[in-house]
Structure formats: structure tokens, C-alpha cells
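#struct-pred

JT: dropping the chains for the assembly here, can someone run the whole complex?
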Amino acid sequence: MRLAEVERGDTLGHRILIRMISRFAGYRLPDAARVAFYDRRFVGPVLGEWTQKTMRGPGSWSVSERELMAAMVASWNTCPFCIGAHRAIAVRGIEPAVADAVLADYRTAPISDRLRAALVFLERMTREPDQLSADDARAALDAGLTTEELEDAAAVAALFNIIARNANALDFEIPSASDFESAAGMLLRRGYA
Amino acid sequence: MATESSHSVLADRLRRRVVETGVISAELREGAMHAGGAEHDDLGAPYDVLARTIGTASYRVTDAQVGAVREAAESDQAAFEIVMSASVGAGLKRWDAAARAIREAADAAR
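RK: done, full complex below.
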């Protein structure tokens, strides 16, 4: 973590909370949670509200599919923290081997055509936003996605293009595999807001 | 014309929040958001190089880039706002591109 105050908390209440959660959970509170507690008068509450709606709100994508999309966006942004964190949640609902196949090459992984078509759109959106066009959206819709499903997937990508950049720029500490698993349980129970 | 989605409402609230709140100047927050989204504002050193690196290849951000912004901004909170504004700019650039593409495809199908 490159900014010390973000790591330790900016209010007495948040400093105590960070220490208490770490003590009760039995692992270091991940930097993503520390960022969520920090500077609450700035963008945090709105970012949290949008993330909660997108990752846990009503929609036809399963939570695991959304988390797998997040892990892929993290992969395209070369963000090891976010890949580990969101793969760990995705595998609560899909086989780890499938998640790993998607991360290795989603074009050949054993997933639905709908999810594959969404990932094609999200990859272009992430890597070449200036080239993204109605033709890309049409290809996804032709593969069977509804407009709403494509918008919901695009919201995952927009948010994780923010979150992964923030994680990389602040150099989030990478938890162990078991701590990623524990944090995944907390994110499933408590959500993002 | 498709109805504005609730995602677009939240995206616009996020954009406004960058502009309207924070301890570092609104000009720097908005400039960092634009630079993160690869727009052509001249943000000035040391902010510009950090915001643009966040926008193009965030894994290449260095301790020195963040350290220089921390020193110029004079607090962790102000430096955090630059980092977050640039990240938001990169994400919203992609949201805007996706929302436009989806809207055009949906309108063409009507």
C-alpha cells in the first residue's frame, strides 16, 4: 500500500474497526476494504452503491458469473490482487477448473455461449474502448444476450476498470490463497456497499 | 432512444462526485479524471504522468510517481483523490463507450 493513511484508516473509528476486523477474522483486512473505509466524503459511497447493485443486485447473471467477469477485467488490467480476490468468490459457484480455464483463455473454456459473448464485448471495452461500436454490441445481442444483460455485464467491466486501476496504483498487498478464500466469504456475506 | 438505465444514473453520480467533493482542488480532480480517461487536458507535473499511467497501464505505476504526487499534494487524502479520480476517468470512459454502443445497436434493431 503506497499511502500509509489509507492503510491505517483516516478516523479513530476506522482505525479501531480495521484492527478489530483483522483480529476477529484472523487475517489482515485486505487493502480493498481499507480503501472502502477511507475518505467517505469522496467517491466511496457512490462507488460502493454501484458495485453492490451490479455485483449483488437483481439480474440474470449469477453472482459467480459476475465475479468471473470481474476477474477477467482484472486480468486484462494485469491486477493480481483483483484476479485473486474475484476468482476466489467465483469458485464458490462454479468449478475452480472452469474459472481457471476462463482466465487462461475464455474463448476455449467450457462456458455458455452467452457468457463467452459477453466476455468478447468486455475485452474490447477494456482494451480498445475507442474502437468499441454498435457492431460489437450487435454481436453480443445476436448471441442471445438481452440489452439489459449486456448493460449489466458492461457495468461490471466499468467498475473493475476503476477498482483494478486503484489497486495497482496503490500497490495493494497480495493476500495468501487461504486469506483470499476467507475474504471471499466475507464479501459474499456482507457485499460491497 | 433507449431509456437511461440505472447504471447510467449511478455512473453520472460518480462523475459528479469527483467534480463536486474532495480536499484537493476541483480542477486537479477533474483533470485527473480526464487524464485517466485519455482526454487531452494538460494536468501538469507530477499529476499528469501518474494519472495517464493509471489510465493506460496501471500495473506500471511506480512508488516514485505516487510519492511525487503525495509530496506535491501535501496529504495522503489529496494524493488518494488523484489516484481515484484517474481510475474513475478510465472506468467511465469505458462505460460511456459501452452504453453508446449498446444504445445504437438497440435503436438500430427497432
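JT: nice. Residues 147-170 of chain A form the longest helix (24 residues). Chain A touches chain B through 54 residues (CB under 8 Å).
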